[in-house]
Design goal:
With 589 residues, this protein is α/β, with parallel strands linked by helices. The strands form six sheets. It has an eight-stranded parallel β-barrel. Strands 14, 16, 19, 21, 22 and 24 form a six-stranded mixed beta sheet that branches. The chain folds into three domains: 278 residues, TIM Barrel, CATH 3.20.20.80; 65 residues, no CATH class; 168 residues, Galactose-binding domain-like (Jelly Rolls, Sandwich), CATH 2.60.120. Helix 10 crosses helix 11. The N terminus is likely disordered. Helix 9 links the parallel strand 9 and strand 10. It contains 13 helices and 25 strands. It comes from Pedobacter fastidiosus. Belongs to the glycosyl hydrolase 5 (cellulase A) family. Keywords: Carbohydrate metabolism, Cellulose degradation, Glycosidase, Hydrolase, Polysaccharide degradation, Signal. This is Cellulase family glycosylhydrolase.
């Protein structure tokens, strides 16, 4: 394949070559070779993936349930309201609908090349305390059948599937929601039966998939977070110095897998949610990758210095196995940083009830009533309403019923490699077209828009940033609120001095236009300037006081000159304190 001689920045060249590398070979087993993940032709493979969180294992926050958020507790409380039969019907519908071939088709079309499957052990085998014969494993077909289907969909799209044991028998940490852990029962670490079952499950998986090249790797234990030496002061193991039980179990799992499968990469994770590798080195297998997880810190070289040091010292590839839950600015910066350093990644998650992921599962009034009861108590909701709300939620988990956040996808797949902007909508200026303020261009901060608060860096700063304070519609720094009168309308709010929004428009006819703006303000201080193709056409325009920040009114600016074709309109805020709903450009006769 020939690549034209273009003057591109190094990160973009790397992006092009890695895409060529991934798409130009027939599917083959991945292997760890020195500091790279390679295919059987020895070509570097950069994994661009996403985690299917919430499918096999529901964490409460993904369902807006913030009290008793372990899956088993959520299920128990639902069962108390609607009974075991209807509860099972909901969970069956959820597993059927949440992830389908259409999801994988979408991911491939958008530009992803891999998925990470967070597995709950209880879909594959019984808990140790429920085994009919102690020490003997009962295998359940449900989990294996779901995994087989997912693998088939990955094959159809030539994507790698990484198996991730997200919830191990007994639970691998004190952050109990992550692994659906019941803290009243023996954990993974203080139960030999749980350890043996964990090893046996990996052997069963390895036996089943040992000849499958579309299985990219085995991520053998997600986010251990357990204090072994000082559990009272360091319950999540972030300061653990030795990690002896963790290393022993990972070595035992590796040895057991290698008895049946010598081909697949084995991915390991450190303690403290994946990042504490004290005591883990030296490594014990030649085909191994180190996984790290990265959340809410800066996206600079210093933020990955520990990963790079381990890669160099151990001569082993590294992979960012989980990251996300932030703004588009953070996503773009993180991916640019990672790919400059040849680090593959898997985002978290694909979908949930919430806006900062590629797909958003819509909630519904009856489900909202259930959530309110589970979080706050009060009068029990009607059982029929609970069941109907849950089944509607399960139906809306289907990809075709979700809200697709193209701004998130653009921030992950396109924006890390270019400063260019692209229209969010077509914006054809004819017949009094309304352009909503929230539909500003897609692109980086300072290129498509400028906002002062763009991401959450609280791990580095100890202060949470909001990004979009409204947490709705889009995932940039621009603050967006929902119109209380019209459920499908949104507006830009919390506009501050110096912030701006850009809109690429297509003008049907050259001429002078009347610009109508719908704004709301409770003061007389808001001002903005208007630029067309970077040339100011209006300066110091005063925003009227409408009597309230939700009381929108339209005012007009005449004689805005526009040429035919593509133009860029920018609204620069020279003094804030107003909200912005929409604008129109109407040709004057």
């Amino acid at each position: 394949m020939l690549i034209p001689q273009l003057k591109l920045k190094p990160s973009l060249w790397f992006f092009i070559f890695s895409i060529v590398s991934f798409n130009s070979f027939s599917q083959s087993f991945l292997t760890a070779k020195d500091k790279q993940i390679v295919n059987e032709q020895g070509e570097n493979v950069l994994l661009r993936g996403i985690g299917l969180g919430g499918w096999m294992l529901q964490e409460g926050y993904m369902l807006k349930i913030n009290k008793d958020g372990q899956q088993y507790k959520i299920r128990e409380r639902i069962e108390q309201l609607i009974g075991a039969q209807q509860t099972s019907a909901f969970y069956d519908a959820w597993l059927t609908n949440h992830t389908t071939k259409k999801d994988l088709d979408s991911l491939k079309r958008w530009g992803f090349n891999s998925v990470r499957l967070p597995m709950h052990y209880n879909l594959y085998t019984l808990p140790t305390n429920k085994e009919p014969i102690a020490g003997k494993n009962t295998w359940l077909e449900k989990g294996f059948a779901l995994t087989d289907s997912l693998l088939a969909w990955c094959k159809a799209n030539k994507m790698y599937l990484i198996l991730d044991l997200h919830a191990a028998p007994g639970g691998q940490g004190n952050d109990t929601n992550i692994a659906d852990r019941d803290a009243s029962k023996p954990s993974l670490w203080n139960s030999e039966a749980n350890k043996e079952k964990t090893i046996a499950l990996w052997v069963k998986l390895a036996e089943r998939y040992k000849n499958e090249p579309y299985i990219g790797a085995y991520d053998i234990l997600n986010e251990p977070n357990y204090g072994f030496q000082n559990p009272e002061a360091d319950k999540n193991g972030t300061k653990e110095k030795l990690n002896e039980p963790l290393k022993k179990l990972m070595v035992d799992i590796t040895k057991a897998i290698r008895e049946v499968d010598q081909k697949h990469i084995i991915i390991i994770e450190g303690n403290g949610w994946g990042n504490n590798y004290n005591g883990i080195f030296p490594l014990w297998d030649k085909n191994m990758v180190l996984s790290y997880h990265k959340y809410w810190n800066y996206n600079d070289q210093a933020s990955i210095a520990g990963m790079l040091k381990a890669r160099d010292e151990q001569n082993v590839p590294i992979w960012l196995g989980e990251t996300g839950e932030n703004s588009n600015v953070w996503f773009t910066d993180a991916i640019e940083l990672l790919e400059k350093n040849n680090i593959g990644w898997s985002w978290w998650p694909l979908k949930k009830i919430g806006f900062n992921n590629p797909m958003e599962i819509k909630s519904n009034p009856k489900y909202n009533s259930l959530v309110n009861y589970l979080n706050n108590g009060g009068e029990k909701p009607n059982a029929n309403d609970v069941y109907e709300g849950l089944m509607e939620l399960a139906k809306d988990a289907k990809v075709e019923n979700t809200i697709i956040h193209k701004d998130v996808i653009d921030a992950m797949i396109r924006q890390p490699f270019t400063d260019s902007t692209t229209p969010f909508k077509a914006n054809l200026i004819q017949n009094n077209t309304i352009i909503y303020a929230v539909d500003y261009d897609l692109g980086r901060n300072r290129k498509a828009y400028f906002d002062l608060d763009t991401a959450d860096y609280h791990v580095a700063t100890n202060k949470r940033g909001a990004g979009n304070k409204g947490r709705i519609y889009r995932n940039d720094g621009v603050d967006i609120a929902k119109d209380s009168l019209e459920s499908d309308k949104f507006f830009v709010n919390s506009i501050e001095k110096g912030e701006w929004l850009q809109y690429t428009v297509q003008v049907a006819k050259k001429g002078n236009y009347s610009l109508k703006l719908s704004t709301a303000s409770d003061q007389n201080e808001g001002k903005l300037s208007i630029l067309i193709d970077e040339e100011a056409v209006v300066k110091g325009l005063s925003i009227p006081n409408t009597g309230g920040l939700k009381k929108f009114s339209v005012f007009e600016v005449k004689n805005i000159p526009l040429k035919a074709g593509k133009q860029v309109v920018r609204f620069n805020t020279t003094n804030g304190g107003y909200n912005f709903s929409y604008f129109q450009l109407i040709k004057l006769k």
